[in-house]
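Data deposition worksheet. Section B asks for the primary sequence of the deposited chain exactly as it was used as input, without tags or linkers unless they were present during the calculation. Section C holds the resulting structure in token form. Section D is free text for depositor observations; keep each observation to a single sentence. Incomplete worksheets are returned to the depositor.
Section A, Depositor: J.P.
Section B:
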Amino acid sequence: MRSGVDIAANIAAASDLIRAAHADGARLICTPEMTHFLQKQTTLLRRDVRAMDDDLGVKAFSALANELSVHLLIGSLAVLQDDGQIANRSLLFGPDGSLAAQYDKIHLFEAVISKTESYREADTYVAGTEAIIAPVDDLNMGLSICYDLRFPALYGVYAQAEVDMITAPSAFTIATGQGHWETLLRARAIETGAYMIAPAQGGTHEDGRKTWGRSMIIGPWGEVITALDHDRPGYVLADIDQTAVKKARSRVPAWRGAPA
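Section C:
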């Protein structure tokens, strides 16, 4: 996606892509980090962020999951908590539109990209504390978000639990995307023996941010199964094969030694 600052427009853009993926046969559909609102100006973010009960994206995507009868993972939304703090929260809706799971980003992005570009997510968001595993039909899925990719211990929890797939919705910068995006995703897949599903933000956004794009799905042996080769809106499809997960883990059982 290329989310901007207009929440309604972002919901509409996401919904169009979700419907297109569903028409192509997708039963689990995943969207990028900050699907419905990409706003780096803290004052404006705080002005427009809402609690989950009042959030337009929560309502719209719940209804859409129910309408299409799919599992729908909204990569993340900025959500206002009861204590007034903001969470970067991933939401999984079931085929009946119910909220099946939620995960708050544990590792908050901090980087100095250049003299004019730096990030400190902890100034705006509060970190999550818990790894989350959710069932999707007969598969198990671990949840993560973007910067989490740099912290293998989280994925060790998912490896020990023998999940079949892990989501990593993201908004990587151009510099970190060029240097690390595919490498980190393939490393996490190899060490866990699980599929990595990585929908991404891409392009130049309304708030001035520039993101790498290149959404991709990595197999449990570390191979790139499918990927976009650009930063424009779009989607990719892949079959998730539980047999491939079992085969990868039986060939190199390193996941058994992963930190729990």
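Section D:
The chain has one domain: 7-257.
Helices lie at 7-23, 42-48, 56-68, 152-160, 174-192, 242-251.
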